[in-house]
Specification:
alpha/beta; Rossmann fold; 3 domains; about 45% helix
Length: about 475
């Protein structure tokens, strides 16, 4: 057992169960920057013993590397949870298996982090697990548990700004120019870039995605351009950079706004000459690489503020695509929800679920700061704990709590706007019979089963209403 030596007495404490010294030091350092003190336990028995100590009674969270208990990780999570029910537990793993995620969460894990995890992702998860703010529990931005789709058909939505962005991306995919995709975190930028590469003339060539925010600033040069042995302390071997790996293909640079001025100039030089020079090299070589870059903030604003090179921004944005946030296309929430539930139902250990209209109204009433990625995470978490066949308002307790008294009114308002889907996920109109059935279900829920009022508001007689209920197979208790 080891404690961070520079911690303050009033720091929040996390118990790290990890037997890899290098990873333990890295996580300890990251946590310390955010005011956390780390206690390291290298095995399960030591971890359980820590819970009974004075410091163990002051823990705010547990971070467990799956490799320490191995196949018994879920058993250890359950035992830790049984001893300290209120303590959030986060599991680190190299596996992206949905089944492992489901088992870990059902055993009591609050979140599931796939290694290598970025410092921002780690701290977001710790904050989400230990706060009562908006991203607590079901709203925590979970790591994606499902493999990303690679085509435009998987991009669900009919909102005009979203469809316009997709049309622009589909056209740009057929070219060779660099592309800038802007939008808030979670709007689907990476998924769109994968679709663009898949639809491009370079589809059979390499694709590499580099998240610049997850790489230490001092290492980005080497990651992108490579380095020669001895070019800096610790550079014992030659490293091939991402540009060389992607020669002939596509290189995705996520969060391009994180580049320092020096690295921006390095990138300008490479784009101008087409020649890549590894760190410490006396030579260079020509590569043919298409760049797809993203930014969570507007590069124009950064250029105006002197934080980003105007020439580089111009070179990268031959095509500029802006993905709208989910709160600006709430009409797409029902289609997105049913699409995600269909995909979630295909995962090992999970069932195919439907969702009630009232639950859809609840989802539509939230403003989704984490956008589409957060919606998927919320639905995944709800599906893990659902014991029936339908998600209801009760499946999203934190949403209900946050929306509070206004939720009822919000549902009433949002039902008309988003409760009825006119289009199938592939963009075609749904059959009229299905739309009519949805309208009737919505009316029954909105008027709380008062069938006389339902019939009056729909402009039909009660006998006609009941005949339609029978013809369409609708339970009037829906």
């Amino acid at each position: 057992m080891d404690c961070h030596p520079d911690a303050h007495a009033d720091a929040r404490i996390v118990l790290l169960i990890d037997d890899e010294p290098a990873q333990s030091r890295l996580i300890t350092a990251i946590a310390a920057r955010e005011g956390w003190r780390t206690i390291v336990a290298t095995d399960a028995d030591t971890a359980i013993a820590v819970l009974g100590t004075r410091e163990g009674m002051q823990l705010s969270a547990i971070l467990l590397d799956q490799w320490v208990p191995g196949d018994d990780a879920c058993t250890l999570i359950a035992e830790l949870k049984a001893r300290r029910p209120a303590l959030p537990i986060l599991m680190l793993t190299t596996s992206a298996s949905p089944l492992l995620a489901v088992e870990a969460m059902r055993a009591g894990a609050s979140d599931y982090l796939v290694k290598p995890v970025s410092p921002d992702r780690l701290m977001d998860a710790l904050r989400a697990a230990t706060t009562r703010q908006t991203e607590r529990d079901e709203l925590a931005p979970l790591t994606e548990k499902m493999s990303a789709s690679l085509d435009f058909d998987a991009m669900i939505g009919t909102a005009p700004p979203f469809r316009a962005a997709l049309a622009q991306a589909a056209k740009a995919a057929r070219g060779h120019g660099h592309v800038l995709i802007e939008g808030e975190s979670g709007t689907g930028k990476e998924m769109l870039m994968r679709a663009m590469h898949s639809a491009s003339p370079r589809a059979k060539e390499p694709l590499r995605i580099i998240n610049l925010a997850s790489i230490p600033t001092g290492s980005i040069d080497s990651v992108l351009f490579g380095h020669e042995p001895g070019s800096f302390p610790g550079a014992f071997d030659r490293q091939i950079g991402a540009f060389q790996h992607c020669d002939g293909g596509t290189l995705v640079l996520d969060e391009i706004d994180r580049l320092t001025p020096a690295l921006q100039q390095r990138l300008i030089d490479a784009l101008t000459s087409g020649i890549i020079r590894p760190v410490g090299a006396t030579y260079g070589f020509r590569v043919d690489v298409r760049l797809l870059v993203t930014s969570n903030v507007g590069l124009d604003r950064m250029v105006e503020a002197g934080q980003f090179d105007a020439d580089l921004a111009s070179r990268l944005s031959a095509t500029r695509i802006v993905l709208p946030p989910l709160r600006e296309r709430t009409g797409d929430i029902p289609a997105l929800t049913r699409h995600f539930l269909a995909r979630i139902g295909e995962q090992p250990g999970l069932n195919h679920l439907s969702i009630s209209e009232s639950a859809l109204g609840l989802l539509a009433a939230y403003d989704w700061p984490g956008n589409v990625r957060q919606l998927q995470s919320v639905l995944f978490r709800a599906a893990v704990y659902c014991e029936g066949n339908t998600l209801t308002e009760e499946s999203f307790p934190q949403l209900s709590e946050m929306l509070g008294e206004q939720s009822g009114a919000s549902h009433a308002n949002t039902h008309e706007g988003v409760g009825i889907m006119l289009y199938t996920p592939d963009g075609n109109l749904r059959p009229l019979e299905e739309i009519e059935a949805d309208v009737i279900r919505l009316a029954i829920g909105h008027y709380r089963g008062r069938m006389t009022e339902v019939a009056r508001r729909l402009g039909i007689g009660r006998s006609t209403l009941y005949r339609k209920l029978s013809d369409l197979g609708i339970d009037n208790a829906a």
